[in-house]
Amino acid sequence: MSVLENWEQWKGFLGDRLNHAEHEGMDNHAISQLAYEIGDYLAKEVEAKNPQERVLADLWRVASPEEQHAIANMMVKLVQNEGSH
């Protein structure tokens, strides 16, 4: 099963990557920009695998660039404590 198929696994995966980026010294602005780029890629190139991803993709498609950045930042906040430590 792909990590994209289960919402909790997906959040855990993102949380792990976020914790790794922070540990490696990536600043919040860089993390925010990377989250935006990943969100844009996923919305355009990857078929949603669960209902939560479908909602995010639908919101992303109708959002302005500023709103897309806000969505990306909210995903970062959502997963900040999801990763294993």
Write the SSE topology:
Blueprint: H1 7-23, H2 28-45, H3 51-62, H4 65-79
Could you explain the architecture of this structure?
With 85 residues, the chain is mainly alpha-helical. The protein has helices at residues 7-23, 28-45, 51-62, 65-79.
Task: Describe this structure in a few short sentences.
The chain is mainly alpha-helical and 85 residues long.
Task: Give the CATH topology.
Answer: Cytochrome Bc1 Complex, Chain D, domain 2
Order of helices and strands: HHHH
From the coordinates shown, what is the CATH architecture?
Answer: Orthogonal Bundle
Count of alpha/pi helices: 4
How many domains would you count in the coordinates? 1
- Cα-based radius of gyration, to the nearest Å: 12 Å
Average pLDDT, all residues: 86
Per DSSP E runs of 2 or more residues, the count of β-strands stands at 0
Low-confidence stretches: none
Shape: globular
The largest sheet is:
none
CATH class: Mainly Alpha
Query: What structural class do helix, strand and pairing data support?
Result: mainly alpha
- Tell me the distance between the termini: 23 Å
Percent of residues in β-strands: under 5%
Share of helical residues:
over 70%
Pfam families: DUF3243
Protein name: DUF3243 domain-containing protein
Organism: Sutcliffiella rhizosphaerae
